[in-house]
Amino acid sequence: MTGNKFTREFTLPPYLSDRYRNIPLTTLSSILVSVLGQQSEELGQEAELEAYFKEKNLSWIILKFDMDIDRQPDAGEKLRVETYATGYNKLFCYRQIDAYDEQGDLVVQSTVTYAWFDMTKRKLARLDPDIMTLYGADYEKRIRRMKTPEFDPDQASEGDHFEVTYFDIDINNHVNFTIYLKWAIQSLGVDFMNRHRVQSLSIKYDKEVLEGEEVTVKTSLSPEEDGQVQTISKVESSRDNATVVLDWVQRQNQD
């Protein structure tokens, strides 16, 4: 059973586009995830939820983010974004976010695993069933496995280094979830990016990256078959931070 559905329309401004007039995946990811906060406003519970989270010093965080891209939206397009909860257990909440174009075609599908984060203890907190009920989420005992392909360090690059900048930090005082995706893509280089586009992505977040830290991104590439290739990037600081899996296809006529 799906939770309460919430829909919001967006017009994608040209100034957010990349060199191919597509909306970058980092920007698109932020737009999709922003709908969750807007649903809280629509429920009329924003003030109550804000007070609850402030009292307990909690925040939402993303533990896993998956996206399938049938077509990367272009600048100037109008998107209808629909989201709903698909279930929760004592620690994790699962949500579906879908984007449709003006013709009603499904262009992007995303599944997100959320959790509550105790800002004082810097660890996960148990979910409150009363709050989950507001979103129409059904309780499920099982914890869904967060699978990622195995990373082979022997097949990986030596690594690219990135320093955490002021603008990488979000409201939770750690690196925003989209920055890991940006690092993984940048580590592949301009030539690779000009020849390929992302068809699907999966990011599993393990340990947060904090302000002042430096990360190393090591990436392995699968052999290219029929224009398709998979990259697996490991983001590391003094600990394992995240794994970013990207499935690529060759660009056609610079699409």
UniProtKB/TrEMBL annotation:
Residues 3-135 form the Acyl-ACP thioesterase N-terminal hotdog domain. It comes from the Bacteria. GO terms for molecular function: acyl carrier activity; fatty acyl-[ACP] hydrolase activity. InterPro entries: Acyl-ACP_TE_C, Acyl-ACP_thioesterase_NHD, FATA/B, HotDog_dom_sf. Pfam families: Acyl-ACP_TE, Acyl-ACP_TE_C. Signal peptide: none annotated. The keyword Kinase does not apply. Keywords: Fatty acid biosynthesis, Fatty acid metabolism, Hydrolase, Lipid biosynthesis, Lipid metabolism, Transit peptide. Residues 154-248 form the Acyl-ACP thioesterase-like C-terminal domain. Belongs to the acyl-ACP thioesterase family. This is Acyl-ACP thioesterase. The lineage of its organism: Bacteria, Bacillati, Bacillota, Bacilli, Lactobacillales.
